[in-house]
Design goal:
Length: 200
Amino acid sequence: MGVSSKFSTPEIVACFRGAIKLSGSNDESGIITDPVNEGKFVTTVNTTEPHYFYMYTNLVQVLNLWLPFTDFESLMLKTLNVAPSQLHPNGWAFIKAFEIVCLGFDLEPSVGVFFSFYHIKGISPNILVLIYSQPNRGRFNLFASNFKNYKNTFLCFRCGDNLPDLMFDDLSEPLFPFYWTSNPRLIKGAILEKLSDIER
């Protein structure tokens, strides 16, 4: 993933922020977006504060992903042990569609139920993690047409003082991996015995 970002100057970032809404709030000052320095890639790990995460901007636009992530979105990233930019856009589309359908039926989205319908087929170093439908169980089609030429659209996101829950919980622990991990979880499906009665 040695592709540089086109969001390399404050002017380009400001143009993006002026055009795209990042949250449901009228005050987005708690979401800080920084240019991506030359020589930094989506796989770059930052070892010093302030911490940040990368996200593909066209993914934010197409799927209307708002920040902070929902509890379900953060839990999916934590369960998969992947950074937001490490998950293939189609995986994000599956997660978002599943979440919307659950909420439409007044159901709490569940990681266990999600993996009753989807799984991770294989994992390779420095390759985006892909989510696939379980055979004969998938509920949504791939969203491929909108995810072309996105690899240079990543931007640096971090939390301002008034929005720590963009990245951290009440105990100041990370809500999800900020940077690409070397050990994403290979989830083949849900363990039915571990699902609650409601989830079954």
